[in-house]
Structures are given as C-alpha cells and as structure tokens.
Amino acid sequence: MFGKKDEPIITNSDKIDTILGKNAKFTGTIKASGLMRIEGQFDGDMECDGDLIVGEGAKVTANVKARNAIVAGAYEGNICLDGKLELKNTGKLTGDVKAAGLLVEDGAFFNGKCEMKGETQKSEPIPIKKNKSAETSNPT
C-alpha cells in the first residue's frame, strides 16, 4: 500500500539471532540485537537493534522499538520503528505505530494510529488557497 514493492523490509531473514519458540511464553523486557523472531507468546517491552518478525501463531502484548518489523500474528501495543512495518494478511495489530513506511496486505487488521516519520515530517504544510470568486458569489 505504502512503499515500494521491490524493496524488501528484512534483508537477511535466514539469519535469526534470537527466537522465541512456538510453545514458549515470556513476560518481561527483551533487549536484542540482530533479527528477532517471535512464534510464541510475549508480554512486556522490547528493544531490538535489528528487525522483528511476529509469526502467524504468535501473540504479542508489548511496546516495541526496532528497525523494521513484519507482523503476521496478533500484536497489541505500541510499535516504534526506524524503518518499515509490514502487516501481513494474517496479522492483527491493535496499537499506535510510528514508522517511516507502512505496508498493509489485504485482509490484515489494524486498529490504532499511524504516524509516518521521515522526510515528509520535515516539510511545512502547504496552505490551501481560497478561490475569491467562490467566497464573494451568492448562490441564491
């Protein structure tokens, strides 16, 4: 939807540095570097220097700061990314998002606010020019 289709979000998904497995449940704070993949349940806060993948069966309730993220499972909480968020058609995201790019597949669920950061944030808003004839004309 937003962003270029030919530009991949995760550059090297074969090299997962940290994984929370399908049957794992974790509550607390995680600080990770590199690529993190969650397949189980996570509740807490996360700081990831690299990218985050929330698998299709995962249930995450957290506030996350990462580089890029792919959400294919259930995610509840706020997410702040330096790069892009990709919400897969199986993904359900409830919370606020701050990211430089957003890709939402057909069928995905998103309930929250999205703030795009980057180059567009730096520019001044363009004032709307009013048409003087429309202001002075009398329609009756």
UniProtKB/TrEMBL annotation:
It comes from Tepidanaerobacter syntrophicus. InterPro entries: BacA/B. This is Protein CcmA, bactofilin family. Belongs to the bactofilin family. Residues 118-140 are annotated as: Disordered.
